[in-house]
Amino acid sequence: MQFGFSIVGVVFLAMLFIPNIKWAKSQPPGYEEISKHESKTLLMLERIGQVLTTCAAVVFVCPQGFSLPWLLWLIVAFLLLILYEIAWARYFKSGEKLDGMYQPLGPIPVPIATLPVAAFALLGIWYQSPVAVIAAFILGIGHIGIHLGHLRELSTHLR
Fold this sequence. Notes:
The structure is a single chain. The protein is mainly alpha-helical. It has one domain. The protein has helices at residues 7-25, 31-35, 40-59, 70-93, 111-127, 130-158; strands spanning 2-3, 60-61. A two-stranded antiparallel ribbon has the order 1-2. α1 (7-25) runs parallel beside α4 (70-93), α4 (70-93) runs antiparallel to α5 and α5 packs antiparallel against α6 (130-158). The longest helix has 29 residues, at 130-158.
């Protein structure tokens, strides 16, 4: 684990934040109502995970740089973020409907939640930072848990 300023982490955060900023400007109808039912525990874990993951992404660097086999972790993490961008593009092109946020991407459930968490966990492995991996894990419990709750609630209403 090595401290420094990570431009890779900044790029990952930009890839994460850009679609979220666009989404925040025009949340789909029904999102505010469904978010009222979120578990306070999951919401707290999500917020803690967001802060920790954001900080870890910027302050850790990979002590091995871009050498193999460590580079493979970074490549896979980056590919997961590309899939994340594809999931968002599909959502925006499909009319920005609430249920579109939770549609699987192939075998990946709730990809808008799972893909960035997995990408940041792999980024933490590339950094060789247990702190970054744990931060992503905490984020995952909250963020994925909340999205699965939304999906469950939507499924109940659609029946």
